[in-house]
Known about the structure:
Shape: globular
Order of helices and strands: EEEHEHHEHEHEHEHHE
Radius of gyration: 19 Å
Structural class: alpha/beta
Strand order of the largest sheet: 5-4-3-6-7-8-9
CATH architecture: 3-Layer(aba) Sandwich
Amino acid sequence: MAWPSACGTLTGMTHLPLAGQTALVTGVSRRRGIGFAVASRLLRDGASVFVQHHRPHDVDQPWGGDDIDALVRELRGLAAPGAMVGEAAVDLREPDAPAALVARAADLTGGLDILVCNQAKSGDDGSIHDMTAERLGAMWETNTRATLLMTTAFAALHGGAAGAARPGDRSELTPLAGPTGRVIWMTSGQGDGPMPGEVAYAASKAALSGVTATVAAELLGLGIVLNTVNPGPVNTGYLDSDSTDRDLGPLDEWRARTPFGRFGEPADPANLIAWLVSEQGAWVAGQVLKSDGGLSLY
Length: 298
């Protein structure tokens, strides 16, 4: 699909780098979340956006869950002229849910150009001494398996097909004029240092980081560009005193010593993702990109 440079509005020519594109963004259940920030930014950039939400997960967290109907209405109010908003409540732990969600998102406009796998299960974790098959499985199913299966379904929309690839096989590439699709995975800071008490979560995210290069290489044959974003510590509500389950004193002291004296905000990774899926980000492929304001250096 061609990338338009501008779109006319009643107030003149406004740059809409994603006009005509359709995106699926998962994990859009709270206004304070990264998923909401990403969906909002893509809508403002001209894309039609289908959002997945799973409110029961947030209700069980200290910060609670938002009114989904109100959240979706707010997203519709942010849409650029001609852009559409779709939504679905989906539990991505179900084996068939990822592929069904991709198909439903593609039905919004008849195609799907961008996939942002932002969903994440957190909480109910522990140290290595606390691990159980159920705890590990729940994190794997939501954070890792669902991401891989959505990527498989997205690739199928762009011509991907199951084959008999053997370890080490590399398909022949036919040069393309430009990307035909974009995929964004979300990882965490598991590579920057220990994450005590989050073994299941860190393991599920480390798997995505570790397999990024492999999957990105396989997708490039279809013209699909995959990158993984590590947003660093982002305050999605869990670092606010009225909606946290931890002692913020040591964290606040550490934050005060960092270069910019703040944690990340959801708009920070959203800005990076919006650039990566635009024409300007087309030359970045198969990377794990950290967006943390230098916090990992301190």
